[in-house]
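tool=predict chain=A
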Amino acid sequence: MQLFYRPDMVPPEDAEGNFSRSPTKPRRFVEFLRNTPMSPCVQVRADFAPVTREQLLLAHTPQYVDAFLNGTMPLCESSSLAWSPAFRDSVLLTNGSLVAAIAAALTDPTQVTMAPVSGFHHAQPSRGGGFCTFSGQVVAGLQLYRDKGKRGAWIDLDGHFGNSIEDSRHFATDLNVALAVNINPSGSHESYLADLNSKLANLEQRIIAGEIDYVCFAHGADSHQWDDLGYQCTTAEWLQAADAVYQMLARCRGEGRALPVTLALFGGYRDDHPESVLGLHAMDLARALNYLENRPEGLDYVAEVRQGRR
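tool=predict ok
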């Protein structure tokens, strides 16, 4: 697996008053992985660039893009995260990580790729929102469609509805083809899993029919019942959701089809035990490696997920 990470993706300071620790998650996740059985299976790649102003304009208005790049209030903090030059540079690199990871998966579909990032799926064309500054999903999707004709799908199991793609369809009408599928299950517990399985079955049919060229999967830890902002799944259900996604993707990658797959992290907000968030992400990654990279020995990895305050 190729993981797209650079240390300068993470701002040197963690601004006081920020509820979300998302800006520091790439570093914390990469460090966490070093002490897991998955570490030898992951190749860290730093050979990617930050997104440019021109790329951001694919998905956002010039007024918003320039306000963020220049630190102009209030738009530069419309994501509810404190602005600084270092934070600006971090945002450009996290978006660059996602764009590069998807492009690499398309270049070599035999390798699953990962962008260890969050902070995209609540951004709107004219502002940020919900700890999300720019929509790397929309930037990457439109760029790949306009440059290469590639059509993608997102499976978004973050605990909160990923509105960024839907809110951008009026801004860029070809997004309806570039990212025609955006799965966000509703409900909780049994109904959540049932809705997910129904939507995965529809996506599988579209992949087999040749309507989807690549898939991105983000399994946010805030859909876990003990997250500070989550509620949908117990630990067993959260992992069952991961199994359902990877089993479907494995079927689609079989039978001679080379389906590019890219992973991302998205939400997770526990401050009583942040390691539980990282552990959930790591258990998801172990499943990705087992299902999608055909490891006969398997990676039997179990992380501690402590009971939370909820």
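The chain is about 40% helix and 10% strand. The mean pLDDT is 91.
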